[in-house]
Model the fold of this input.
Amino acid sequence: MARREFTNAVYAQIVKRAMLPSGEIVCEGCGLVLGKKAYHIDHTIPDGLQVDKSRKLTAADGKLLGVECCHKPKTAEDVKIISKAKHVEANYLGIKAPKQKLRGPGFPKSPKAERRQPKPILPARQLYKEIDA
Ligand SMILES: [Zn+2]
Done:
């Protein structure tokens, strides 16, 4: 299912929550005063891991994170965790990876290899001999 995004109203609530009385915006991850630095509203629980997506997102579902200080590292970590969760679920449900296409016949035979004659098959050697008594 598609990722749920924060509505403008919820977005505004989160930004106001992260704002100091002086009007400066603070990263809710590490407390850094962001000033003019970029920030994102992060899904506290990655939306890819959310089972019930029918519920509307509220301000409690998001955190204002500075892009450089907190959001980039968290996103990289979240992507790994989401991928792992999807694999575990697929394995549990018995979903197999799609079959691979058949490989081609490989390289053509070299002229020398084409000239090669198969070796004659020798008669099998006897392991035991009869003893004349
Ligand atoms: Zn931060």
Observations:
- Residues 27, 29-30, 32, 65-66, 69-70 surround zinc ion (CB under 6 Å).
- The first helix runs from residue 8 to 17.
